[in-house]
Amino acid sequence: MLNCNGVLIHSLSEAPENVLTVLHTSFSITEKIRFFNGRVLFWENHYFRIIATLRRHRFEIPMTFSLTYLEQEIQNLVAGQKTPFLNGIIRFQCVATQSVSFLISIETNSEFENQPRKKFEVDIYKEGFIYSDSRSNMSCTNENFFFMAKRYAFENGLADCVLLNEQKSIVEGLLGTLYFIKNNEIRTSPLDSGCQDLVFRNVFNEWVNQQKEYRLIEVQLNPFELQQTEEVFLLSLEKGVIPITHYRKTEYSNHKSIIIFKRFVESFF
Fold first, then answer.
1. Rounded to the nearest 5 degrees, what angle is found at the Cα of 60, between the Cα atoms of 22 and 31?
2. Most CB atoms closer than 10 Å: which of 65, 219, 241, 264?
3. Is the pTM higher than 0.90?
4. Ramachandran category for residue 76: left, alpha or beta (phi over 0 → left; psi -120 to 50 → alpha)
5. pLDDT tens for each residue of 180-193
6. Would you tell me the crossing angle of helices 43-56 and 199-209 to the nearest 10 degrees?
């Protein structure tokens, strides 16, 4: 079931013709939101990111697009499901009809994965670069680039790729924000590297800054640091923490990253 402009529909074919036309032929903006244990996480942060992205793309934002109204439309969709929906991803998409139309859908999946995988190997993607400017902070900017990099990872038997910017600094992974752990420091790329300004990234960074055990450092990361750190992990809205186990001949442990993410999730309640 979907929510199209406040009306619950069973399939996309039931959406108004003008929405379908624009959806298939024009540009759209998508925000993914985590629904966890029966509630929307960090909705206010996601709402302001949606509105900011619409403004930057010169969308005409309806006066009805209030924080409360859009949250209620998400809840209406959740309540309208045939089976109880407790954990998964809310996909909020905006298209530029005469005014802005929205389409909300649900992607059901399990809770965050907290157990390390047997092997998660990555390598650097060198067939292109992300530009280190504020446009790259928006998820929609580099969609085609991400698609090509994902195909490269699949064809080369990699679980993910490490993306670089035009200055050859590390930006992020395909599946999420990249973090390095060494001693009591957690290092990640700053926004001016070109990484996505994701809500989950921002909330996690704020949480780490409140902890005494680790110090968060946002700094330009050199690819050589991949061979000089204790642990590397990806932070993903869909999967939670994804510890990287191998990069070329370097092998990492995952003990710290698992514990850090477990404590992070506990802070939600």
1. 65
2. 241
3. yes
4. alpha
5. 999 999 999 999 99
6. 130
